Amino acid sequence: MKTEFQAKFLQHLLQKKENQGFTLIELLVVVIIIGVLAAVALPNLLAQVGKARESEAKNAVGTTNRAQQAYHFEKLSFAAGADTPTVQNLLGISIPAQYYGYTYPTASGTLADVYARDTNSAANGTRAYSGAISAGGGNYSQVVCQGSTPSVATATMTAATSCPTDFTALK
């Protein structure tokens, strides 16, 4: 019986066809599956990229507020300059403007503000940010505000205690 089993097994191995590749249907199924996965994953990936860029802007606005506070503590006035590099040099900070453009309007003796705006916010889905810091009576108040939608432009900050219309304060 053992030899009979071996003979049948050898015949089976000899008659077995070699693997000849994938059929067209199998390839189409794989392409469709990859297409569906890409269609689902791509918007999520782009949203995560937008969130990372927004995080960079939040950090930059907060850093500017803290640097303005330190500058005011030493010089009794907020740093002001004709352009962004001048203000950043006075504050001792370096914020690259790769995705967001930063604007430092003229600072007064009691209020300094900063605006962060993505030049392509509609396509990137990123929101604008504004920040302000004020000094009075030995106390400092600061606020960082986030635009409600990507289409909201930066707004003028009039106080470091509240945000303008269409902006919400970040904690």
Describe the 3D structure.
With 171 residues, the chain is α+β, with helices and mostly antiparallel strands. The chain has one domain (23-169). Helices cover 46% and strands 19% of the residues. The protein is built from four helices and five strands; from the N terminus they run αααββαβββ. A five-stranded antiparallel beta sheet has the order 1-2-3-4-5, covered by helices on one side. A hairpin with a 7-residue loop joins β1 and β2. It starts with a helix and ends with a strand. The mean pLDDT is 84.
| Overall geometric form | rod-shaped
Order of helices and strands: HHHEEHEEE
Assign a percent range to the helix content. Answer: 40-55%
Strand content: 15-25%
The termini sit apart by 82 Å
Subcellular location: Membrane
InterPro entries: N_methyl_site, Pilin-like, Pilin_GH
Organism: Neosynechococcus sphagnicola sy1
Membrane topology: Single-pass membrane protein
List keywords for this structure.
alpha+beta, 5-stranded antiparallel sheet
